[in-house]
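Anyone else keep sequences and structure tokens together like this?

Example one:
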Amino acid sequence: MEKNSFKVCLDNEGNTNAWFYVMPHYKLRTVGDNVLSGDEVLFKPALSNDRTLTLSNHHLVDKPGCREVVVSNLNLNWKVMYRGTSFYILLLQSYMCS
């Protein structure tokens, strides 16, 4: 795990540490506005104002091509995309690609 980061895991028994605010990355939208397809957003933990959800530079040993999800002080933005009735969230950082 990277320095100054917290590892994020999926858990059936979530708690307040698992709550994230979806925040607009740019000033075009304000907190409380609907998120639209193509919007760039930040995922901020409810209990930490200075950190966001991002990907680690560390590859997972058991999942080739995949990386660890962490909460860190890097403000990396994600893009929300809708296709049909599904939505996708993409990380917008080229250095994160395998």
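And example two:
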Amino acid sequence: MQDDVSLPWFRLYSEIVDNIKIRMIEPQYRWFFVAIMACKCQNIVKGDADHVERVLMIKLGIDQQTLHKIRDTLLAADLIDETYAEDYNLFNRIQKI
């Protein structure tokens, strides 16, 4: 996939409701996980970490402290890896969940 191409959709398997990693996190973080994936498909989650943080805060309507809490929660649930914390390249870790 080219870096400048936006995807109009992404696949989310129905088994997500039974996935233990997803079920272990609080419901609002489940939503943020899906919302960040949607932002990634819109091709806006790229660039340096500061820029990406600003974009995600605007798109998700949250502050930086909340964004960092989301990041830490998703890391602890093993839904993303440390690469996310460095450059917000979310899809390095996402598999079929």
